[in-house]
Amino acid sequence: KLLIGRFLYYNGIISMKSLIDAIVWQKRQRPLVGSIAAHWNWMSPDDIYSILTRRIPGEKFCECALRCGYINLNQLRLLLWRQRMLQPKIGGFFVSQNIVTLQEMEHIAAQLRIHNSKYWRA
Length: 122
Prior knowledge:
Elements: H1 4-10, H2 16-29, H3 33-39, H4 45-54, H5 61-67, H6 73-86, H7 91-96, H8 102-119
């Protein structure tokens, strides 16, 4: 199953540099999990600070929060789901950079759905 960025790359529409730039852009736009947890009153600012200071090198915020008992596995899943829903679509990067138009992106997304339906059975 291909994601839109890889589909664009494999079809020669974007370069690998553009794909990496888009991924970095999307990650920078992504809301922080701690902010979402605080908004939902699952964590206080003190909890967030404690998690940040207790992280093992390379450990993600959510992994530490789970390990230290600030959240449970269901909360972790909900936080990550919400973060994914709030992050901008990666195709928006390519439109904003005038690599493709909005209409082209919509057409490409339709092609991707067809491609994935042929080669991926969920």
